[in-house]
């Protein structure tokens, strides 16, 4: 993936692990499910019986390999009320210099729907986001409900899993992403040379080692592949 502009990456590093944590909470709560989107009512209805208000933020196209913001999609004919968050994100992008949030479309090699939605989920204080795939692409929505209930902080295995998944997809500073998560959660940490260590709410201690470019090398001595 081509490296997007620094402001977008800065926001991604600040919010990615927090939003991935919310995604874990959301899908644990939803369980096995299918979903039906009621565009007129703005309600996502899950087969598990859960219903949640949603906002449409944009779509990925498998054909053009682009992200298209919902506010710029003239063919979707979505109700205006479902575009409120997308428009708020456009204004936020202009305010914070995140150009990719202000352009009608973005090359998926610069920023794909998951990267954009992880940031959007934090900016809009959503419960999480949902990728609703269809033939030729996917619609991304932000959910303002349901409430997953008791929050489960990422444990050491969760942090390792989420970091390694993002590392395989995106070009960013892994150290900054971990530090942002730990500080946002109020978890005491220490930095010694290339290492960051902290005791997680799970009672586990994490020791992550990075190279000089902030790229993750090991977690508790295990080499990251």
Largest sheet: 7 strands, antiparallel
Which stretches are low in confidence, meaning pLDDT under 50 for 5 or more residues running? none
The number of distinct helices, counting runs of at least 4 residues, comes to: 5
Give the SSE string: HEEEEHEHEEHHEEEEE
Mean pLDDT: 92
State the shape: globular
Q: Classify the secondary structure makeup into a structural class.
A: alpha+beta
Summed up, the domain count is 2
**How much helical structure, as a percent, in the residues?**
25-40%
Distance between the termini: 18 Å
Residue share in β-strands = 25-35%
The Rg value, from CA coordinates, equals 18 Å
How many beta-strand runs? 12
Task: Describe the model.
The protein is α+β, with helices and mostly antiparallel strands and 225 residues long. It has two domains: 138 residues, no CATH class; 68 residues, no CATH class. Helix content is 33%, strand content 27%. Strands 1, 2, 3, 4, 5, 6 and 7 form a seven-stranded antiparallel sheet that branches. Strands 8-9-10-11-12 form a five-stranded antiparallel sheet, with helices on one face. Helix 1 packs across helix 3 and helix 1 crosses helix 5. The longest helix has 25 residues. It is globular and about 55 Å long. The mean pLDDT is 92.
């Amino acid at each position: 993936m081509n490296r997007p502009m620094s402001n977008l990456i800065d926001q991604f590093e600040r919010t990615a692990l927090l939003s991935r944590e919310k995604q874990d909470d959301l899908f644990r709560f939803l369980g096995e499910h299918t979903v039906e989107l009621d565009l007129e009512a703005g309600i996502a209805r899950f087969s598990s019986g859960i219903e949640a208000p949603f906002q449409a933020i944009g779509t990925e196209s498998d054909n053009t390999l682009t992200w298209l913001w919902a506010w710029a999609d003239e063919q979707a004919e979505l109700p205006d009320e479902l575009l409120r968050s997308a428009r708020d994100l456009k204004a936020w992008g202009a305010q914070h210099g995140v150009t990719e949030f202000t352009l009608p479309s973005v090359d998926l090699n610069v920023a794909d729907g998951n990267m954009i939605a992880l940031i959007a989920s934090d900016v809009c204080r959503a419960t999480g986001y949902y990728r609703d795939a269809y033939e030729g692409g996917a619609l991304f929505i932000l959910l303002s409900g349901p409430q997953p209930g008791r929050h489960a902080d990422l444990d050491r295995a969760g942090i390792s899993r989420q970091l390694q998944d993002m590392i395989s997809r995106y070009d960013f500073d892994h150290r900054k992403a971990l530090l942002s998560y730990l500080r946002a959660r109020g978890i005491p940490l220490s930095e010694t040379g290339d290492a960051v260590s902290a005791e997680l709410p799970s009672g586990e201690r994490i020791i992550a080692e990075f190279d000089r470019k902030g790229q993750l090398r090991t977690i508790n001595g295990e080499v990251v592949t």
